[in-house]
């Protein structure tokens, strides 16, 4: 169990603190997403948890603050940004150096390279690794001490769909073994798909703490996006047919030749357009982010 209580960063000059009295939990056996837009305080919150930023508040890792844990790397594994290391150092050399710092056997380096799929690139220099490979090495670094808790700052940013799937499969496996996983993201759809719980912050303050299913229901709204040169006519027809069938459908003109239809699906909208001879240039299901609720005063 990770418990963050009253996290507040030190203010910079006349600006308000980047994180302001933030309190939430990340539970073992679950993946928790810390969601917020750029500048919302996500990274600062992680740094406060790791005692890497000035401020106040406390974070308990299974009931103990970090400074009271004899071997922090064996309790908490962190990935904040790119893997630090000399560009000429090899992947294996980097991990072995970190093994010495964490007090774990050097053989653990090869075990982790194998776990994250980098065994064949063990002797590759850090400067030659792609973004996806660098992220894999970062996870290997975080896992060296076999920690219970993982803290990851936007680990999926810039990754391909294949790397994205691999990453969250690994995090899900860590949680399935009883570990605690907390990662930050600015993508609400990613959070709803990959997390068990979503903690939303804005302006450094907590605005929502929800199970993923509740988050998706209240924050993400499915819609049908239509592009047609006869948007006004199609919108009127969809509305009229929905009323006749007593279905709750909302049609929103997005400007020009674009409509958003809420409460329907592609098949129904497409059939309406076909019956009335209306050409459609685009017809797709999407999920719209309705934005976070206002932070409490």
Descriptive report:
There is one protein chain. With 297 residues, the protein is an alpha/beta fold. It folds into two domains: 2-218, P-loop containing nucleotide triphosphate hydrolases (Rossmann fold, 3-Layer(aba) Sandwich), CATH 3.40.50.300; 229-280, no CATH class. Helices cover 33% and strands 28% of the residues. It has nine helices and 14 strands. The protein has helices at 42-49, 91-102, 107-115, 131-143, 161-176, 188-194, 212-219, 231-244, 266-275, and strands at 2-9, 22-26, 31-35, 55-61, 64-65, 76-80, 149-153, 180-185, 197-202, 205-211, 220-227, 250-255, 258-262, 282-289. A six-stranded mixed sheet has the order 6-7-8-3-9-10, with helices on both faces. The chain has a four-stranded antiparallel sheet with strand order 2-1-4-5, with helices on one face. It has a four-stranded antiparallel sheet with strand order 12-13-11-14. Strand 7 (149-153), helix 5 and strand 8 form a beta-alpha-beta unit. Helix 2 (91-102) crosses helix 3, helix 3 (107-115) crosses helix 4 (131-143) and helix 6 packs antiparallel against helix 7. The two termini are 28 Å apart. The mean pLDDT is 92.
């Amino acid at each position: 169990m990770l418990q963050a209580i009253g996290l507040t960063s030190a203010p910079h000059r006349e600006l308000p603190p980047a994180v302001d009295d933030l309190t939430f939990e990340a539970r073992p056996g679950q993946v928790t997403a810390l969601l917020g837009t750029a500048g919302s305080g996500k990274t600062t919150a992680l740094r406060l948890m790791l005692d890497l930023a000035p401020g106040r508040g406390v974070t308990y890792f299974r009931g103990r603050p970090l400074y009271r844990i004899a071997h922090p790397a064996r309790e908490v594994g962190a990935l904040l940004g790119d893997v630090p290391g000399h560009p000429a150092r090899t992947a294996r050399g980097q991990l072995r150096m970190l093994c010495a710092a964490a007090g774990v056997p050097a053989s653990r380096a090869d075990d982790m390279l194998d776990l994250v799929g980098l065994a064949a690139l063990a002797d590759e220099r850090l400067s030659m690794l792609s973004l996806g490979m660098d992220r894999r090495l970062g996870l290997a670094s975080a896992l060296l001490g076999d920690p219970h808790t993982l803290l990851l700052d936007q680990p999926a940013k810039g990754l391909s769909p294949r790397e994205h799937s691999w990453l969250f499969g690994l995090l899900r496996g860590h949680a399935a073994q009883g570990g605690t996983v907390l990662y930050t993201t600015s993508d609400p759809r990613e959070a709803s798909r990959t997390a068990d719980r979503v903690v939303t912050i804005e302006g450094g303050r907590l605005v929502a703490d929800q199970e993923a299913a509740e988050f998706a229901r209240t924050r993400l709204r499915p819609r049908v996006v239509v592009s047609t040169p006869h948007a006004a006519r199609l919108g009127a027809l969809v509305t009229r047919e929905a009323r006749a069938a007593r279905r709750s459908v909302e049609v929103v003109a997005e400007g020009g030749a674009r409509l958003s239809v809420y409460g329907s699906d592609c098949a129904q909208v497409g059939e309406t357009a076909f019956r009335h001879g209306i050409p459609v240039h685009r017809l797709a299901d999407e999920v719209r982010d309705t934005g976070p609720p206002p932070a409490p005063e």
